[in-house]
Design brief:
300 residues; mainly alpha; 13 helices
Length: 300
């Protein structure tokens, strides 16, 4: 019994160390550049979004808002107060919906993490998140043109934590917060990947998520709801699943429902949406994730 346990530990450590070696560089690079964007570019991105109000962009502004949401490094609890300040200054709800939706799904740091999945998966992630934000904005534009969608009362712009007079110290402190916020989830993701690699046959993953079947896409969209905790933590799992036969469409579906239904994001969104609009949001996310997964597999 002791010998068997020792052997399993060796196997698991081997899988863990190989996975860590393959993906750790992307995680470190994501933190380094993500913190740089947060400290030195965040205000420029948000000010650029504010400046769009002075331009008569019409529906085109929805697409610009979705792109800027991806560029924003804030988490949802940081994005909502910023969106509240945008709304107070006169920003339209359809633009805010696009900005917030894409900001939930993706940020510069997660883009760099996702490069570990390969270029096709990275491109699919960026495009699907961008179009998800744009679709959310277009829905609000046409369905809620004459009535408000958000309830931002009581929110104020978040306190800036990057205030040290030294740019280098601002960056180091932000990087430290980044490591503390994502490090544990990243290691858990690598450990789960090692467990999957050791104990779950590749044929099982191919059966569940492979091919071009709608069932695989639906399964991926569904497990994204309870399984997603942190973007960096799911990258090792997705990498392993793609190696074992998961289709790109299933991966795309998982990469939408996961962050969109992350429990902390849902808690923040419930506050500003109200129950009816919150349920509308959940239906939209699941339908878009399923549809985009089928489209990716069809094109692929």
């Amino acid at each position: 019994m002791t010998e068997l346990l020792h052997r399993e530990i060796i196997y698991l450590w081997y899988y863990f160390s190989v996975q860590l070696e393959q993906i750790a560089g992307y995680w470190v690079l994501g933190m380094l550049i993500g913190s740089a964007v947060s400290v030195f570019a965040k205000d420029h991105i948000h000010n650029l979004f504010r400046s769009l109000q002075d331009k008569k962009l019409g529906i085109a502004g929805i697409f610009a808002a979705s792109a800027l949401g991806i560029a924003s490094p804030l988490c949802m609890y940081g994005t909502i107060p910023i969106a509240a300040s945008f709304s107070e200054s006169g920003m339209k709800d359809d633009w805010l919906a696009a900005f917030m939706m894409s900001s939930i799904l993706l940020n510069p740091q997660l883009i760099l993490y996702s490069a570990a999945l390969g270029m096709p998966a990275l491109i699919i992630r960026i495009l699907s998140c961008f179009f998800c934000g744009a679709a959310a904005g277009l829905l609000i534009h046409f369905l809620y043109e004459r009535k408000p969608f958000f309830e931002f009362q009581g929110f104020s712009e978040p306190e800036n934590r990057d205030t040290d007079p030294s740019p280098l110290l601002r960056y180091i402190k932000n990087l430290g917060r980044n490591v503390r916020a994502t490090g544990v989830y990243f290691l858990i993701g690598v450990a789960l990947s090692a467990l999957f690699q050791r104990y779950v046959p590749a044929e099982t993953m191919t059966t569940l998520f492979g091919g071009n079947e709608a069932f695989g896409v639906l399964m991926a969209a569904t497990i994204g709801v309870p399984l997603y905790a942190c973007g960096g933590g799911t990258i090792p799992l997705l990498q392993q699943w793609l190696w074992e036969g998961m289709s790109l469409g299933s991966a795309a579906s998982f990469m939408i429902t996961g962050p969109a239904t992350k429990i902390t994001n849902l808690g923040a969104l419930k506050i500003v949406l109200g129950l009816r609009h919150f349920l509308f949001y959940l239906v939209f996310v699941m339908v878009f994730a399923f549809g985009s997964g089928l489209a990716v597999n069809l094109v692929g």
